[in-house]
Protein 1
Amino acid sequence: MNDHPIAARGYLWTTVEVAVLREHYAKPGGPALCAQLLPHRGLHAVYAKAQALQLVAEQISRTAGRRFAKLHPVTPEIDRMLTEGCARLTERGAMGRLALSVGRPKWWVSKRLMELGLSREPLKNPPWTRAEIAIIEDWASCRLPTIRAKLKEAGFARSDTAIGVKLKRLKFDRTDPDVWTARDLGALLGVTGKTVCDWIARRGLKATRTSGGPFGVMQVTRKDLRAWLRTNHAYVDLRRVDQPWFWELVL
């Protein structure tokens, strides 16, 4: 137990202590100096009392950004190259090529272009046409690479990411194009979910049960379905299946 009266918890600050705080707190290293001159007041107590007295310590100079400024100085020649190259930033990859030409990282070039008032609008994908939407609607139940290939056959170039985003905005279900529940698979094959369950129970169609014990949902993978169709295609009525999905599946 500390028997020094000043060290007692909640002990009021004396006039001498406050005077020391006012004299030294604003100096360089003031908080640490005050804690040293007032050994029975910890650094946290010094900070708290200074805040109550509205005392401000001297700000320590920061070094953030100085290292990058030395590594990547601004020169009139680089600014000239950026000004001339800004007009060519209409193609994808142009920013990387411009950064390579001036010997600076892309983030630095982008920041410098903004400082020079030369920032450009981000490149956007062209709007979707009705023909593209019709294609992805017809092939929505297939995998993204398949939909991309069908768009390419029609003369359209879209990435898998762009197709996935568009399908989500159109509210198509893209949970997993390679796994189906018995009900979902039945809808694609033109039968009921009970028929698919019968194929699983008595016709050799492999399926796995999701978590939930005996009450889990039965799921069939693309691989197992294709293997089963090789020897059990007679059970499937081709007139009732989802045509784009089925032919993409078997072919």
Note: Residues 1-9 have pLDDT under 50 and may be disordered.
Protein 2
Amino acid sequence: MTILKSKWIKIEDETPDVDRPLWYFFDMVGVHKGVFRGLYEAHMHVFIGHHGGWLTGDVTHWQYDEGQGKPDEPVYSK
């Protein structure tokens, strides 16, 4: 599968800057605004949502918040 939306970055390709506002995506919860807090044990990345929730090792894609509204989920082609 490949991503059609160019702004989404696969977490396995690049990690974002720590504490820089961004949008992150995980299939089970969708798109959320937050920050990347760094790595926890090996390659488990930690994302903190603006409303207090957090994900560890589940985020698959991210993009920096550049003042845009909530972006659509990544779109895949088969």
Note: The beta strands are 2-3, 9-10, 22-26, 30-40, 44-49, 54-56, 61-64, 76-77.
Protein 3
Amino acid sequence: MDLKMIIVMRKDLKMRKGKIAAQSGHAVMKVFLDRAEMDFVDAEDGGPVMTIKLTPEMKDWASGIFKKICVYVESEEELLDLYGQARTENIPCSLVTDAGHTEFHGVPTNTCIAIGPGDPEKIEKITGHLPLY
């Protein structure tokens, strides 16, 4: 299956290019890390162990080609609606809320989401209408 991940950015925030890159990186990682469990008993080498429960699509995507596509929405409301749709469809997804230390005057701000990796047809139903960033 030709799996993909869609990263949806909020264009209304007018983030700098570096901030956009950082937020999209957070979104991609967060899809996986949100499913992680930390074992606080140290492994044989002395470090803690993290286990991530992957869907079959996540496993295939992580061991193959990393296809990611960036699109945008114009509002937080649109972003949260798409996030809710992905969750309803049981597609792995993440919501990134920036702490606001550098661009948002100390106000935590929802900046982007990642949807997938997953079945392109399911993801397309949710994000297919969005313009490329």
Note: The beta strands are 4-10, 36-39, 49-52, 68-73, 93-98, 109-118.
Protein 4
Amino acid sequence: MAIECEASGLSQREFCEQRGVPLKTLARYLARYRREQTGGNPMPQWVAVEVAAKRGNPGELTIVLAGERRIEVRRGFDAETLRRVVAALERA
């Protein structure tokens, strides 16, 4: 629930109202989640990237992750959705 709340872009109160969860319950989950996260390396890990030759259409972006997982962004993408994906990946 903590990850969903942080990725939602909503305030804690809005998230709780939408889900029917008491604010105190969410606060407990968030505190536990954040404690667990700081137990390891609290800073996001950055990796070197290589810009490959241009392919595809202008305005497209493809990010290839470990295990050949891909994130593809095309022209007209929803910026808020991309922001949530990046926020979730930074916490993972």
Note: The helical segments are 2-8, 12-19, 23-39, 79-91.
